[in-house]
Amino acid sequence: QKTMTTTMMTILQTVLYLAVLVGVTNGYTVPSTSESSCATSTRQAFLSTCASTVTAASVAWLNPHGANAFDGSGSSAYAGRTPSSKAELKKSYQTRVVADVKDFRALGAAIDNGETEGRSWVNFFIEFKRREPDDVGRAYAALADLTGTKDYSGCGVLLAASYAKPGKPSDNLPSVKKYNALAKTFDPIKSAGKQGDAKKAKVAWEKASVALAEYLETVELPSEISDPLYS
Q1: How far apart are CA 43 and CA 133, in angstroms?
Q2: What is the dihedral of CA 100, 145, 143, 220, to 10 degrees?
Q3: Do residues 75 and 158 touch, judged by C-beta distance below 8 A?
Q4: How far apart are CA 153 and CA 161, in angstroms?
Q5: Apex CA 124: angle with CA 176 and CA 223, to 5°?
Q6: Most buried in the list 42, 73, 122, 132, measured by CB within 10 Å?
Q7: Which whole-number Å values give the CA distances from 44 to 6, 37, 69, 193, in the listed order?
Q8: Torsion, Cα of 138, 140, 143, 149 (10° steps)
């Protein structure tokens, strides 16, 4: 157990060190180990930071695709709330999902331009927490906000679970099923970016966009990614 803990800490330290070196964490909280940082990221450094946080460094601790929002009787986020407060919370999740879709759309535009690194990739995939929430209350970048981190459930699954009836589990809801299918589609995009393969990234993005559209339709949001709401 001690050896495993030491190994995981070493991996995390390496990831954080890379993040500081490449300077991809502008606007996000990362412990600094250097007084200076580079202004431009490389594909290898950026994607190793993002991917390693989700895979190698986080096998035991991070599970963004399996964010648990259930307590056996629906979403625990809604337990004990009045109808009006539930409606407000649901609206806040929808607002965040819209912002996440905007970033997903921007990622698609970058891929169309042949990019496999850069700001649009960072804004969607980076795992580090923001120094402060953005205008719609997102504490993390798009993917982590949508699918969650080790510390909290993402707005995607929380919104999906909001359609459960009181005292009923959420697992079989169409919205939750569509969310679970969607959450599996992002890794292939990241993998293609790591390889510097824009064509493969485009194919993966298109598949994810179909799953995203199907999910959006179940949570009372426009299903077309091209909708002006996501501009």
Answers
A1: 26
A2: -40
A3: yes
A4: 11
A5: 45
A6: 122
A7: 25, 16, 33, 9
A8: -110
pTM over 0.85: no
CA separation (Å) from 159 to 1, 78, 92? Answer: 37, 10, 9
Q: Quick: pLDDT tens for 133-190.
A: 999 999 999 999 999 988 888 999 999 999 988 778 888 899 999 999 999 999 999 9
